[in-house]
Design a protein that fits this description.
With 224 residues, the protein is α+β, with helices and mostly antiparallel strands. It has 9 helices and 5 strands. α2 crosses α3 and α8 crosses α9. The model has no long low-confidence stretch (mean pLDDT 90).
């Protein structure tokens, strides 16, 4: 049955308008994005199929255009729209961090990093560069590696911090494996970067590990 044949109080778009987006399931949010289904499947059915196929919203956003388009009813246009939505969300949070201190918006920082590197299939190391008021100046993915390793060079992090005239930085990397806890190598690297950046008077405020949907903060665990 098509969604427009459902009772009005059960339709995702109408429920979103009346109660807000938070009340909708992942499949229903995808249905609002898709707008229409295909023969034999409502938009909500398609939403469920996409989540089942890719395992999660993170997996959906990380899907290649080839894999995404293999789903009946999907294609390059929907793929482009999906990633435009993702980029808009990231830019909206970036604007907030440019106005407000990152330390006063820790959840926004986590959400921004989840959108920035959380859906990548490879290990990615990113840095947020902050001014003296802890507002975002810029963000960069400085290093990328395989599923299990990324080579991070302290000298390059220091150069980037100086290039942006940053007073402080926030480090982040993802664990595509889904394990959120830091390894001994992660702890060693964090200390090495802190020492290197201290030489140029740049503070390391935190180091986040992103393993969507979980986020691990070194600062919250007293490790920085």
């Amino acid at each position: 049955m098509a969604i427009n044949e459902w009772p009005e109080d059960q339709r995702p778009r109408e429920r979103l308008i009346k109660h807000g987006a938070a009340v909708l399931s992942d499949a229903e949010l995808i249905a609002v994005f898709l707008r229409v289904g295909v023969r034999g499947q409502s938009a909500v059915d398609l939403g469920r199929e996409l989540i089942s196929k890719f395992g999660s919203l993170t997996g959906l956003f990380a899907a290649s255009i080839k894999d995404f388009s293999a789903i009946h009813g999907m294609g390059s246009a929907k793929y482009a729209q999906l990633h435009a939505v993702l980029e808009l969300a990231k830019r909206a949070i970036s604007e907030e961090l440019q106005v407000n201190a990152s330390l006063s918006s820790p959840e926004s920082v986590k959400h921004y990093l989840q959108l920035m590197i959380g859906n990548k299939s490879y290990e990615s190391f990113a840095v947020l560069f902050l001014d003296v008021k802890n507002r975002l100046i810029a963000s960069e993915e400085l290093f990328r590696g395989t599923l299990s390793h990324a080579s991070v060079y302290p000298r390059e992090v220091v150069i980037a911090a100086l290039r942006h005239n940053a007073a402080s930085i926030i480090l982040a990397h993802n664990h595509p494996s889904g394990t959120c806890e830091p390894s001994s190598a992660d702890l060693t690297l964090t200390n090495t970067l802190k020492q290197a950046l201290a030489l140029v008077d740049v503070r390391v405020l935190d180091h986040f590990i992103i393993a969507n949907p979980r986020v691990y903060s070194f600062a919250e665990h007293g490790q920085i």
